[in-house]
Amino acid sequence: MTNSSTSTSQDVQPVDVDAKKRELHGWQYWIVAALALSASVFHLYTAVFGLRSAMYQRSIHWLFMGGLMFLLYPVSKNRPKNRIDWWDWVFAGLLIAGCLNIILNWEVITMREGAPITSDIYWGTIMILLVLEGTRRAMGLPLPIMATIALAYAFLGPYFPGILSHGGFALDEIAPFQYLRTDGIFGVPLGVSASFIFLFVLFGAVLSVSGAGQFFIDLSIALTGKSRGGPAKAAVVASALMGTVSGSSVANTVTTGAFTIPLMKTAGYRSEFAGAIVAAASTGGQVMPPVMGAAAFIMAQFLGISYWDIVVAAAIPAALYFFSIWAMVHFRAGKRGIRAMTDEEVPKIGPVLREGWHLLIPIITLVLFLATGYSAVKAVFWSIVCLVGASWLGDKKYRMTPKRVLNSLIDGAIGAVDVAAACACSGIVIGVIGITGVGLAFSSFVMSLSHGILPLALILTMIGSIILGMGVPTTAQYIITSTLAAPALAQMGVPMMSAHLFCLYFGVLADVTPPVALATYAAAGIARSNAIKTGFTALVVAVAGFIVPYMFVYNSYLLFQGSLIRIVLGCATAFLGIIGLAAGVQGFFVTHLALWGRAALLSVPLLLIHPSLISNCLAVGIIALMFVIQKRRAAQVVSPVLEENPEQ
User: Looking at CB atoms within 10 Å, which of 80, 386, 489, 571 has the fewest?
Assistant: First the structure.
């Protein structure tokens, strides 16, 4: 959108993650920049001096985000992108006026709670329509359609069958409920966007300007380049490192993929596989501590626990996911005989760390602040401060000068608009769920359909999460599925943390699940590969993501719960299961696998979903037996070669 953006992802040509946004210049740019800068200043101010009360904080946040939404996104892709249409000024003005109505008249509004006046109904109706239209522009049709269906359900309740039936609500009830309560548009999702998410997006923008993207890529290649399949392993590590500070699948894909995908293709990987590795690894950024994706902050609010608790619980499952992709790469390289990188191609780790060590300071600061009990708001604020200061310890081309700081504040606010739109629109759905009581009905429906059988309930939730995640952003998908499905799982004895993470994981995997797989399409654009083939390849590469959630539902130690011995032993067997899974999928362990060998190794992770002493021993035995058989087979293959070529 801006003529001064320095975001790394915007320098990538094959895929433009901001293709929908306007590219403004002149006085229109400065108005948008001033609005974005004001948003960043407001959120930094409240981070230091304390958040305002719920409706004030959320209304001011939505005033900025909603106004930017209409000024940045045209009504259709056919409209000119170098200027703002007059009706968008009107829409932005109406949305800002609706927020100001709450900010300036909140005390009066609270005095008449339960008895809305005519203006409340008008403003509520206008705000609902603006949220639906703005979200359509920023996020596409699926989420607004879902919100519209939810509203129709609220109006037409008596016409629905069975447990879905309810008394129905009129517009003069729905509109004020959605507009003037913390259960609708200004509900928990937008509240989390207003308090946590905005600041973490801002942190990512500042980190990007400071050169962290290139540092992470260089560090990844230095660490992995000389091992088998080095370029692909570098892509996995780079995506994991980027995922620690950025929860966007597409942004991670274009940032790391622009460099690592060409390297993988040069090393001998097919275009589809190279794109799939980057897409699958980048998608894992949404579940990679310490930042994770926006949904993690909402999870903390829903569960009423600290964000640090989410970070700790998510650590082992994220490690299993990234390790599975690493193992896929390793076995694939062995199967195809892909070489390691040469000394000339691999940067030395010493010079890389000397040049970029200061970029690790803000990440360490963030982890320490979270671990010592500070709120996520305080932690990320001081991490931003440390980042600006630490930038002066490195190369001068990445130093955060006043101009760079201003640009990153503007870019950060603009980058937060999409998530805010998704949160506001999700609030409409949450409001309908709350006012109609359909959440309890859905829980009863899942219980009835699954007959109280937990594995069946988990499969139903998985299917629903993936289908929903294909159409809406991860944040919105998590909000809706966790509100509907998590209570049903909890009734069957699943801990709430496990139930919520289960919903999150399968929503995240939608980014690599065709036909709607945004991260895959971004990677395919860079790899110049067939998007559908890349999508299905990414689905295979990310297959561990479909098993790990079942493992932590049945095994709480994978969420760092239980005794230390149980956690260590449980994690060890889980990692063995991931090795078996990757080897079985790729058809290579020590050497090429026969069909029966692949089947044996693929059974290992299934044995560990609901482990017992017998299943654990059986899984370890299969891995050990296959390793011995494969080593002997490899030796038999090598020996004749050495006899024929003694000089080797």
Answer: 80
**Would you call 250 helix, strand, or coil by DSSP?**
helix
Read off the pLDDT of residues 365-376 as tens digits, 9 standing for 90 and up.
Answer: 888 888 887 888
CB atoms inside a 10 Å sphere around CB 641: 9
Q: Are 310 and 205 in contact (CB under 8 A)?
A: no
As a whole number of angstroms, the distance between CA 219 and CA 352 comes to 6
- Closest alpha carbon to 281 in 246, 326, 315, 312: 326
Average pLDDT, the chain: 84
3-state secondary structure of 592: strand
The answer to whether residue 37 scores a pLDDT higher than 90 is: yes
CA distances from 421 to 103, 108, 144, 255, 416 (A): 19, 27, 10, 24, 9
pTM here is: 0.76
Q: Give the separation between CA 1 and CA 72, rounded to whole angstroms.
A: 7
User: How far is CA 209 from each of CA 41, 382, 405, rounded to the nearest angstrom?
Assistant: 18, 17, 9
Give yes or no for a contact between 222 and 348, defined as CB atoms under 8 angstroms apart. Answer: yes
- Residue partners of 186: CB distance under 8 A and separation at least 6: 54, 55, 58, 59, 62, 102, 179, 427
Entry field: residues in the chain: 648
Residue 109: CB partners within 8 Å, gap ≥ 6? 102, 120, 180
**Whole-angstrom distance, CA of residue 79 vs CA of residue 73:** 10
**What's the confidence (pLDDT) of residue 68?**
95
393, pLDDT greater than 60: yes
**pLDDT (0 to 100) of residue 409:** 93
Q: What residues pair up with 588 in beta bridges, in sequence order? A: 592
* Cα dihedral 84, 88, 93, 99 in deg (nearest 10): -120
Q: What is the DSSP letter of 544?
A: G
Tell me how far apart the alpha carbons of residues 135 and 123 are, in angstroms, rounded to a whole number. Answer: 18
Note the pLDDT tens digit of each residue in 193-231: 898 888 888 888 888 788 777 788 888 888 887 788 787
* Highest mean pLDDT of the ranges 120-124, 484-488, 634-638: 120-124
Q: Is 502 helix (H, G, I), strand (E, B) or coil?
A: helix
Check if the beta carbon of residue 279 is closer than 8 Å to that of residue 538. Answer: yes
